[in-house]
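TASK: fixed-backbone design
INPUT:
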């Protein structure tokens, strides 16, 4: 099979067909190419994590888990906005709702991040 660096729906269909045929290495090749074009794509990273797990390549799985955690954290991170009054109001609301501590640090952690952190610990144990 010849792979191109073009990002196309055909490539995703090929990767899925490799997965269905229980050929994770073929799927991984395609997903890695797709990841070059979209390094923060949640779905591609998730599929890579699953396929690396299938072939027991825990180091690459861990790398993808860390990348996906960063994607999720950046999504939930406070966004920089113009205007001091908007920032001030937002900080006050977050503190009053209990979403941040007194210093303004986030208290809530999304379930998807918790799940990834748990998997990360499991993979780190397997690497050691």
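OUTPUT:
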């Amino acid at each position: 099979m010849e792979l191109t660096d073009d990002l196309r729906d055909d490539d995703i269909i090929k990767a899925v067909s490799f997965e269905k045929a229980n050929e994770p290495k073929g799927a991984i090749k395609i997903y890695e190419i797709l990841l070059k074009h979209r390094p923060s794509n949640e779905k591609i990273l998730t599929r890579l994590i699953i396929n690396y797990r299938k072939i027991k390549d825990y180091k690459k799985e861990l790398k993808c888990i860390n990348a996906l955690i960063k994607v999720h954290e950046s999504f939930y991170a406070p966004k920089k906005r113009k205007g001091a009054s908007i920032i001030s109001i937002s900080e006050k609301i977050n503190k009053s709702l209990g979403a941040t501590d007194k210093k303004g640090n986030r208290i809530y952690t999304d379930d998807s991040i918790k799940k990834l952190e748990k998997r990360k610990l499991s993979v780190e144990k397997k690497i050691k």
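COMMENT: The domain at 9-127 is CATH 1.25.40 (Serine Threonine Protein Phosphatase 5, Tetratricopeptide repeat).
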